[in-house]
């Protein structure tokens, strides 16, 4: 996770989670450092975010960048049965590595802009909740993930993974060419000329012919990509045709008067021909020369319109915050993203994944310092996971419980994000990674302050238990793969040295600062929240010392500061009321909230065996003490009577909880079949009994 530079900025990926992100605002975003205006509407940031920002990050701007910006409603339409191939980057706007790679991806798209009739460069943001189902459908687990989609693919496919030694622009460009050449003649994009070399005899035949266009032949080595790149560069131009030939025949090269490779041999419409002299034998020089020939001009554009994105009128609102405090809104927003978006990348959970989820949810249920409705939901989720006898569960079963489909009173989790201490100066900075660091810090501090909370979980009496659980979560579920690898490297180096809960708290703090140092100056760094060692001197003067003129940490004071900063007593509920009050259940999937937009069209999901939820995967029944007791003797208009009715409605809803219409149909079918079978068996034995009586009946004389 790219850490967000101050504690506040500290996290942006588990190469850097952010706990610190809240605390470190050296210079508040507004001009006045002492205090921000109560409502600073960052319209400029919203506009920079581009169409459809919706408050989320926009690494790529539709209409401004050469990248084709896709979403859940357009990705299937764009890639299915397309006349062009596609290279799509599935990314997450909070992933530090994705942010750092964005300039390269934009540069690649601009560099191959003229190839769009043959292959297009696109991007889809999996951090947007409306895109999470599409990312699950395309089996995206880590960010960024690069997938190729061949032209004229009629059946649904998740695409082919990028295969290259690195992700440098030139490597990706050459891999795109290899991908185009892997098309068969039957499904090759119609606008893509043949990229295979022609024979020397074919070159001589072209010289002898006259036509109405230029013919350029790029002569090169077998390993060169220059000829193929120039062929693709000239796709949108008319009155010129580009081919390539290999220069392995020395006599042939001498006959043409070609001194070196690569070279361009040009045949004019009037029949004249000869070797072309350009400044340098590079792709850009050849392409520029051929485009500038008399009569060569760009064809009228015949490309389809780019997939449109909804315009968003939502402004980004700045919220005042105290950087010495933690905010419930940040923790709960991060938990919402973790449970509903990040886990959604896994259609089903089994083996090590399921064990990691169970342990992580157990730690959350025992140590999460949020509001009672959220803690109760986590406890219910933990009890349900612990009681499951299955070794594989679909993610949808987890989502049903998180969404409180049973409508149990008193449990809820926000279904949107509201960053306060983790807000960035513009969309895409800090946010989720900041909140994840904060969550990790609160868990280690909570384990040290309340070791008895883990009694009976199998994680007790182990000072590394929480750290190891966090480590496995980052390795298995955190979307930024490179960030997860960095976190794993740090854990391998020194996590075994942790012998006490206090050492666990300090270990995570040290690694968080290490990530801050590594990511300082990275494109993912928020300029308003620089990645500097945390806590800063103004937050904790006693944490900083000088020994012989050299600045150093007083780790004893740092430990005291961490225990206070990440304690429940330092948690502020300001702005968390906007996320839904206690006892307010999140709406079930498919229900439309007032003022919300209907979700865009989703690509069809894979209806494999893993996506079918067994009827036995029901969330746990609420304890008797927690259930609403129907107030039958209370007036209907009274508050208590309303609660009684809600309890009755929750009980009624529970009867059908977890069953789809198919499940219910199967139950009815099995019930009818069982009834018919019992009736048949009853009549069979009744008739048989009568026959037996007749056969053995001896009338008395």
From TrEMBL:
This is Sulfhydryl oxidase. GO terms for molecular function: flavin-dependent sulfhydryl oxidase activity; protein disulfide isomerase activity. Belongs to the quiescin-sulfhydryl oxidase (QSOX) family. Its cofactor is FAD. One of its GO terms (biological process) is protein folding. It comes from the Eukaryota. Residues 425-534 form the ERV/ALR sulfhydryl oxidase domain. Keywords: Disulfide bond, FAD, Flavoprotein, Glycoprotein, Membrane, Oxidoreductase, Signal, Transmembrane, Transmembrane helix. It comes from Odocoileus virginianus. The gene is QSOX2. Residues 1-33, 573-643 are annotated as: Disordered. The lineage of its organism: Eukaryota, Metazoa, Chordata, Craniata, Vertebrata. Catalyzes the oxidation of sulfhydryl groups in peptide and protein thiols to disulfides with the reduction of oxygen to hydrogen peroxide. Residues 39-182 form the Thioredoxin domain. Residues 1-23 have a biased composition (Low complexity). It catalyses: 2 R'C(R)SH + O2 = R'C(R)S-S(R)CR' + H2O2. InterPro entries: ERV/ALR_sulphydryl_oxid_sf, ERV/ALR_sulphydryl_oxidase, QSOX_FAD-bd_dom, QSOX_FAD-bd_sf, QSOX_Trx1, Sulfhydryl_oxidase, Thioredoxin-like_sf, Thioredoxin_domain. GO terms for cellular component: extracellular space; Golgi membrane. SUPFAM superfamilies: FAD-dependent thiol oxidase, Thioredoxin-like. The chain crosses the membrane at residues 668-685. Signal peptide: none annotated. PROSITE patterns: ERV_ALR, THIOREDOXIN_2. Its EC number is 1.8.3.2.
């Amino acid at each position: 996770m790219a850490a967000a530079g101050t504690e506040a900025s500290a996290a942006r990926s588990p190469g850097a989670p952010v706990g610190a992100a809240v605390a470190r605002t050296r210079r508040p975003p507004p001009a006045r450092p002492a205090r921000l205006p109560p409502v600073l509407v960052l319209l400029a940031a919203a506009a920079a975010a581009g169409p459809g920002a919706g408050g989320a990050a926009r690494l790529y701007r539709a209409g401004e960048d050469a990248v084709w910006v896709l979403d859940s409603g357009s990705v299937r339409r764009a890639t299915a049965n397309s006349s062009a191939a596609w290279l799509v980057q599935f990314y997450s706007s909070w992933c530090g590595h994705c942010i750092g790679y964005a300039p390269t991806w934009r540069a690649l798209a601009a560099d191959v802009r003229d190839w769009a009739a043959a292959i297009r460069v696109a991007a889809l943001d999996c951090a947007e909740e409306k895109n999470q189902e599409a990312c699950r459908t395309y089996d995206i687990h880590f960010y960024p993930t690069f997938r190729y989609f061949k032209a004229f693919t009629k059946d649904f496919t998740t695409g082919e993974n990028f295969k290259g030694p690195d992700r440098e622009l030139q490597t990706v460009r050459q891999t795109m060419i290899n991908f185009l050449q892997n098309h068969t003649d039957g499904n090759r994009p119609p606008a893509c000329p043949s990229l295979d070399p022609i024979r020397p005899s074919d070159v001589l035949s072209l010289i002898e012919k006259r036509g109405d266009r230029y013919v350029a032949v790029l002569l090169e080595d077998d390993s060169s990509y220059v000829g193929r790149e120039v062929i693709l560069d000239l796709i949108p131009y008319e009155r010129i045709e580009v081919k390539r030939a290999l220069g392995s025949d020395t006599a042939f090269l001498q006959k043409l008067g070609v001194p070196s490779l690569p070279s361009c041999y040009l045949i004019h419409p009037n029949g004249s021909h000869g070797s072309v002299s350009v400044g340098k034998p590079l792709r850009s020089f050849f392409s520029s020369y051929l485009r500038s020939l008399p009569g060569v001009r760009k064809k009228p554009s015949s490309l389809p319109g780019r997939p449109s994105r909804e315009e968003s009128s939502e402004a980004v609102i700045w919220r005042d915050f105290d950087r010495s405090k933690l905010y419930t809104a940040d923790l709960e927003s991060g938990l919402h993203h973790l449970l509903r978006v990040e886990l959604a990348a896994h259609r089903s959970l089994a083996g090590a994944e399921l064990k990691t989820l169970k342990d992580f949810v157990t730690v959350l249920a025992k140590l999460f310092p949020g509001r009672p409705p959220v803690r109760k939901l986590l406890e219910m989720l933990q009890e349900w996971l612990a009681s499951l006898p299955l070794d594989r569960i679909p993610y949808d079963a987890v989502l049903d419980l998180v969404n409180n489909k049973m409508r149990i009173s008193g449990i809820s989790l926000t279904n949107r994000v509201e960053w306060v201490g983790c807000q960035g100066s513009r969309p895409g900075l800090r946010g989720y990674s900041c909140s994840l660091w904060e969550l990790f810090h609160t868990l280690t501090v909570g384990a040290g302050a309340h070791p008895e909370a883990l009694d009976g979980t199998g994680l007790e009496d182990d000072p590394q238990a929480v750290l190891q659980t966090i480590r496995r979560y980052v390795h298995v579920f955190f979307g930024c793969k490179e960030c997860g690898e960095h976190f794993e490297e740090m854990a391998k180096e020194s996590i075994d040295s942790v012998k006490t809960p206090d050492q666990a708290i300090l270990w995570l703090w040290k690694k968080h600062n290490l990530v801050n140092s590594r990511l300082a100056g990275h494109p993912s760094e928020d300029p308003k929240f620089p990645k500097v060692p945390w806590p800063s001197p103004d937050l904790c003067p006693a944490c900083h010392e000088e020994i012989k003129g050299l600045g150093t940490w007083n780790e004893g004071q740092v430990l005291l500061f961490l225990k206070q900063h990440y304690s429940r007593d330092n948690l502020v509920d300001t702005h968390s009321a906007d996320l839904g009050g206690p006892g307010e259940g999140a709406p079930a999937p498919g229900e439309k909230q007032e003022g919300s937009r209907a979700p865009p069209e989703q690509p069809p999901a894979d209806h494999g065996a893993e996506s079918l939820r067994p009827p036995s995967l029901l969330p746990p029944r609420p304890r008797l003490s927690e259930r609403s007791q129907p107030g039958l003797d209370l007036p209907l208009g009274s508050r208590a009577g309303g609660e009684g009715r809600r309890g009755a409605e929750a009980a009624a809803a529970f009867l059908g909880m977890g069953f789809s219409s198919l499940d219910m149909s199967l139950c009815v079918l099995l019930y009818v079949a069982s009834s018919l079978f019992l009736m048949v068996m009853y009549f069979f034995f009744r008739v048989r009994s009568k026959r037996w009586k007749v056969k053995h009946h001896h009338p008395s004389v």
